[in-house]
Design a protein that fits this description.
heterodimer; A: alpha/beta; formyl-coa transferase, domain 3; 36% helix; disordered N terminus; B: 404 residues; three-stranded antiparallel sheet
Chain lengths: 430, 404
């Protein structure tokens, strides 16, 4: 049986191999124009900025990105910081970016944006088709003018299809994928509503997918010389996570009942310990045997019904009741060390404060505190990867609305001071 | 047919379960030639994941393995065998990316850490997706998805206030890590095409999970307060939730953030008298009286099906969607029109639904070109055609257990 994949000679040999060169950031020299609001596109812009791209954030006057008023807010902001400068979320999502504020309702404002797009490698946005048409920024128009430009969008439903202009927030998009159908962990009654997940998974996954798609287009452009249209839907970004229900549906046409979700193996759950909750999600009988040993080989564990992971799932309540007294004598972090020493997939369900003092996270320095001109105190979470030759740097603080308008318009578009004064008088810039 | 964007890229995957197999699927969907490398001693454990065709076990019968590993070639090599390792390094020499999700230190123990890969190919991009990262005191801890959600603080933010923690129920960690892995591989390729430099990325899946809850992190690390569970609320959106509709297990979700959206919501609900009550006059007062407000909204949604409610709300410009189960998702016309569902035609398990990559690039086909590889499916072609090995050598090294 032949596959349709051809075995190509492979290797990208467009650049010569240079041995011991000083490492440069991965996306150095890549100009990204971000017309992004709130989470998904700004998060993608952040991912690219973390990798060294030059990200210019275009904000619409008068108010700019609504995330400027997104909680949580700094408890003790710097004196003089305005109410729209103290969002910690904005500060995290938009660090290492420059802000250019334009009145996009004016023809001149839109022309300036196009002037910047002429210099850009990637145009990243989260506008729906109806807004793009109004702004004159449809892919067709942009591609005709800037054939090398990569246009990368992330919207709840994508740029095509009947829902393309539907309004949504990240969690409304999430609920449409089935991803909340089986949360929380225990659905006791069928009238208990599906529950959203922590963070904003649809915006996170959509943001990652569009950053990935934009880089795919950049790698492809080196070969073709052409830009392309990357069209990410948050909904589609979440869908692959639903492989288990899809496979079940494909297997026997069944939608597994929400209140009878049986993983088929046990123990596979959260359990109470002395000072909180621990997670005991065991997949192999060997795990169970090691846990039994850790519990001191109690007599009840000799019963044949507890010897098999499937019968343990069947007699879940009994197993829980029998384990619980011993577990309640354990403290979470000690039990973690003890269980892992026995090669068991057991660990504490932690609150944030405990996570931040975990020796592993401390050792890998996952965050850094720094001063921010508006929020006062700020803490930056390091991207979740290390590249030993390129140590992580404390990011430049998020910009004030329009902080870099003049500088960018002068340096990138060559405008003069006098032209800027005129633009300000016309209300195109602030 | 137009060229797929990554058709000039070759990727080697040493993966198991989801994190690196899904990362390389994303690259394969965009046209990369992905060689999935397994060994008899340690097949990808997803090959034994249920459901399996007719409920019968076997390496080529798992639905889950098929859906995650579409568009790849299959190869077996034993990296612990010196000849196996040597041939793997030959493949590295003619490849662009290596992605693996072994526990920290495994690549070293097998004699193929980044330093060795780099000797074989200075331009290679190596992405490591381990549970806790390559360094640190607990780097060798067992790290399955549910455990990582727990230790990273994600699970305690799930569920209801006062109740037990809750996981994502779908190994969120693995899927998000995969997206990072694919993105980082591409960023390495982007630099390499300018400078020729290779790269090594040490990704920690625990840190990936933590990066998915930045609001909770910021609230504690900057403001010193421990965040509460969000449940179905969103502190950025005063009116936000999941509401019962007509019938059992029928819900609609909606959100109204701005004053304009609140006005639109009131209008969609038929401008009820209660909407004018002073306790709902401002965003803050709507949050303060959330439980009561939700009851009033629900009295309206209960009179409609999720679809009707969504249609009315959307007509008025209110963010809303039906809450779907998997069958409803599967039947939804929007996802179909965009071609998100793509059939996977597998020689053993038949025609099965699969997903196109979320990184949709217009003009590039979203079709799934082939099913997941059968066990050792492409050994002969890869060893003979790609590495130019004479058939006798392939036979000898297979019998010597180097290439199994």
């Amino acid at each position: 049986m032949g596959s349709s994949i051809t075995l190509t000679p492979g290797l990208l040999q467009t650049a010569k191999i240079v041995g011991a060169m000083s490492p440069r950031p991965f996306l150095a020299g890549t100009l990204v124009i971000e017309l992004g609001e709130v989470y998904s596109a700004p998060f993608a812009g952040k991912l690219l900025a973390d990798l060294g791209a030059d990200v210019i954030k275009i904000e619409s006057l008068p108010k700019g990105d609504p995330a400027r008023s997104m909680p949580p807010f700094a408890r003790s902001p710097s004196p003089g910081a305005g109410p729209r400068d103290t969002s910690l979320m904005f500060a995290w999502l938009n660090a290492n970016k420059r802000s250019v504020a334009l009145n996009l309702r004016t023809i001149t404002g839109r022309k300036l944006l196009k002037g910047l797009l002429a210099k850009a490698d990637i145009f990243l946005h989260n506008k729906q088709p109806k807004d793009l048409e109004a702004l004159g920024l449809t892919y067709e128009e942009l591609h005709a003018q800037f054939p090398r430009l990569v246009v990368a969008s992330v919207t709840p439903y994508g740029q095509t299809g009947p829902y393309r202009n539907r309004k949504a927030y990240p969690s409304t998009a999430l609920h449409m994928t089935g991803a909340s159908w089986y949360t929380p962990q225990h659905v006791d009654a069928l009238d208990e509503p599906p529950l959203s997940l922590p963070g904003r998974p649809a915006a996170v996954m959509g943001g990652l997918a569009v950053a990935m798609g934009a880089l795919t287009a950049i790698v492809s452009r080196k070969v073709t010389g052409q830009g392309s249209h990357v069209d990410v839907s948050e909904t589609e970004s979440v869908m692959p996570t639903q492989s288990t229900p899809v496979n079940r549906f494909s297997f026997d046409g069944m939608v597994e009942p929400r209140n009878e979700r049986i993983y088929g193996i046990g123990p596979f759950d959260f359990f109470r310990v002395k000072d909180g909750w621990t997670s005991i999600f065991l997949v192999q009988d060997a795990h169970w045997n090691r846990l039994v040993k850790l519990m001191g080989d109690p007599d009840w564990s000799k019963d044949p019904i507890f010897k098999d992971r499937r019968t343990r799932a069947q007699y879940k309540e009994d197993v829980t009741a029998l384990m619980q007294p011993w577990l309640l004598e354990q403290t979470n972090e000690d039990f973690y060390v003890k269980a892992q020493a026995a090669d068991l997939p057991i660990g504490p369900a932690r609150t944030i404060d405990k996570t931040l003092t975990d020796p592993q996270f401390v050792s890998r320095r996952i965050f850094r505190k720094a001063r921010h001109p508006a929020t006062g105190d700020m803490a930056y979470l390091r991207p979740p990867y290390l590249t030993p030759s390129l140590p992580w740097q404390t990011p430049a603080p998020s910009p004030r609305l329009g902080q870099h308008t003049s500088a960018v318009l002068m340096s990138t578009l060559g405008l003069s001071r006098r032209q800027l004064t005129t633009l300000a008088a016309q209300g195109v810039i602030a | 047919m137009s060229r797929l964007p990554l058709s000039h890229i070759r990727v080697l995957e040493l993966g198991t379960a989801i994190a690196s197999p899904y990362a390389t699927s994303l690259l394969a969907d965009a046209g990369a030639e992905v060689v999935k490398i397994e060994t008899e001693r340690r097949p990808d454990n997803l090959r034994h994941n249920f459901p399996m065709l007719d409920g019968v076990g076997g390496v080529n019968r798992s639905f889950y393995f098929n859906i995650i590993n579409r568009n790849k070639l299959g190869l077996t090599i034993d990296l612990l065998h010196p000849e196996g390792r040597a041939h793997f390094l030959k493949l590295v020499g003619i490849s662009d990316v290596v992605i693996e999700n072994f526990a920290a230190g495994t690549m070293e123990r097998m004699g193929v850490p980044y330093g060795e890969l780099r000797k074989a190919n200075p331009g290679i991009i190596h992405v490591s997706l381990s549970g806790f990262g390559a360094t640190g005191p607990t780097r060798n801890y067992v790290a399955y998805g549910p455990l990582l959600e727990s230790v990273a603080g994600f699970a305690m933010l799930g569920g209801y206030e006062g109740g037990p923690p809750s996981n994502s129920a779908f190994v969120y960690t693995d899927y998000v890590s995969a997206l990072y892995g694919a993105m980082l591989a591409l960023s390495g390729l982007a630099r390499r095409q300018e400078t020729g430099q290779g790269a090594y990325f040490d990704v920690s899946q625990a840190e990936v999970t933590f990066n998915a809850i930045p609001d909770a992190f910021l609230q504690y690390a900057v403001n010193g307060s421990i965040p509460k569970k969000k449940e179905n609320r969103d502190e950025f959106i005063p009116v936000h939730g999941v509401y019962h509709c007509k019938g059992l297990e029928q819900w609609v979700t909606l959100g109204a953030r701005t004053e304009e959206e609140w006005a639109a919501l009131c209008k969609a609900l038929g401008d009820p008298a209660w909407a004018q009550r002073p306790e709902f006059a401002t965003p803050a007062s709507r949050v303060a009286h959330q439980a009561e407000l939700n009851k009033l909204i629900e009295a309206w949604t209960r009179r409609h099906t999720p679809q009707e409610a969504t249609d009315i709300l959307q007509q008025h410009g209110v963010a809303s969607a039906p809450v779907y189960n998997i069958q409803q998702v599967y039947e939804d016309p929007h996802l179909r029109e965009r071609g998100m569902w793509q059939e996977i035609v597998h020689p053993v398990i038949g025609r099965r639904p699969g997903y196109a990559s979320p990184a949709f690039i217009h003009g590039a086909s979203r079709e799934i070109r082939k099913a997941a590889p059968l066990w050792a499916e492409d050994n002969t072609r890869i060893y003979a055609e790609l590495l130019g090995m004479p058939p006798a050598d392939i036979t000898r090294l297979t019998e010597a257990k180097a290439l199994v």
